[in-house]
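Feature request, filed as a ticket because there's no other form

It would be nice if the structure record came with a short human-readable summary line next to the tokens. Right now we just get the raw output. Example of a typical job, pasted below so the devs can see what we mean:
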Amino acid sequence: MNLKRVLLLTLVVVIIVSVIVVAAVFKDFAGSSANDSQTLAPSGTPVGRAMVAYNPGLSGQAKDAAMAMGEQLRVQGYEVTVAGVSSEAVVNLTNCEVVIVGGPMYGGKCSSSIESHLRSFEPKNEMRLGVFTTMGNVNFDQSSLDSLEDHVNSLVGSDPYIVKTDVRLILTVGVDEDCNEMVLDLTTTN
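Raw output as currently delivered:
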């Protein structure tokens, strides 16, 4: 009789936890509470301004990736604002040459907070836009990236101020390398 109770209690706990996790993903609690920001100053005279906005997701991996990209931009001489997607700082894109936005991907699409941010995205001057999503699954197929690229293109369209767009999946394995490559691609002029 005790074994049945333990199993039943375990099942109930698993169901409750599952419902909470699913609700957190679909309600995008992580994105709506991401309201912190910080500025990273280069060691010399800035070569430009950059913004890195993120939805940390449930794991926080996207915030770690955003911080890595912000640091890489700072090392390259940019004054960088790294901010949660719900912070007031993400609205100010004035004089930003590089803007990177990212967070987790659910069902082949950006999280709702990133989607909302990209929908309202209104560049005022020429800039390069990077959009990333984090994935724990290292066995993704090309259709995941294609789906994300299509989603991003449907959100930002063909804005004449966006002179370059880079869309990436940042995997758990090789996060620093993926982040550095994205920053280099966005900061290298062609």
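Something like this underneath would help us a lot:
The chain has a mean pLDDT of 80.
The first strand starts at residue 37 and ends at 40.
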